[in-house]
Amino acid sequence: MTNTPALSTTSADEPRIRLDLSIAHAQSLAELIDLATRMHLGQFTEIAGLARMHKILARSDLQGGNGQPIDIIQSEQLEEVLRSAEHIMGHIPGRSNFSIGSPGVSPECKRGYETLKVLQKALHEHLTPNTKHTVNGDGLLVRYDQGPAPVATIKSDVPGS
Question: Could you tell me if 92 and 47 lie in one domain?
């Protein structure tokens, strides 16, 4: 394992990165950031939920080329193992995971969460423009990191839109 330096707090004069993503890519990125954030917060059983929805597949052969959904019994077994992992990490499933503002949450997780919230808001405004005040539509209401806030906007290359 390599020893990577801790991420420094961003400053206003630091260079910014712009991504050009399709809506589908942005939705996938948001789902993956959400999962990574939940792992940092100790919500390991989210993995079992993704397996139940067939978003994570089990290997069906030793070459790893194919995957298959798990059945309900395997899903329950997976959830039991993940609850044990939560317990080992000091979390009581369903009650005592970290919240995003907890001191024990890494700066990387807090930055990821902020990125997720602005990305979710941009997607929400684009895909369901007439609805407001939802978990995904409210955006970044509270900052957990210093420096400039992340920004996500959706722009169309179609003239007149």
Answer: yes
Summarize the confidence of residues 53-70 as an average pLDDT.
Answer: 82
28-48: per-residue pLDDT in tens?
999 999 999 999 999 999 999
Phi, psi of 19, rounded to the nearest 5 degrees: -110, 145
- pTM of the shown model: 0.81
Q: In whole angstroms, give the CA distance from residue 28 to residue 34.
A: 10
Domains held by the chain: number: 2
Closest to 148 in 3D by CA, of 111, 120, 108, 121: 111
Q: Which stretches does DSSP call E strand in 7-161?
A: 58-59, 67-68
- CB burial of residue 10 (10 Å; 0-12, 13-18, 19+): middle
> Is the same domain home to 77 and 33?
no
Using the 8-state DSSP alphabet, how is residue 159 labeled? T
Angle CA 102–104–110, to nearest 5: 65
In a domain, residue 6? The reply is no
Q: Are residues 48 and 62 in the same domain?
A: yes
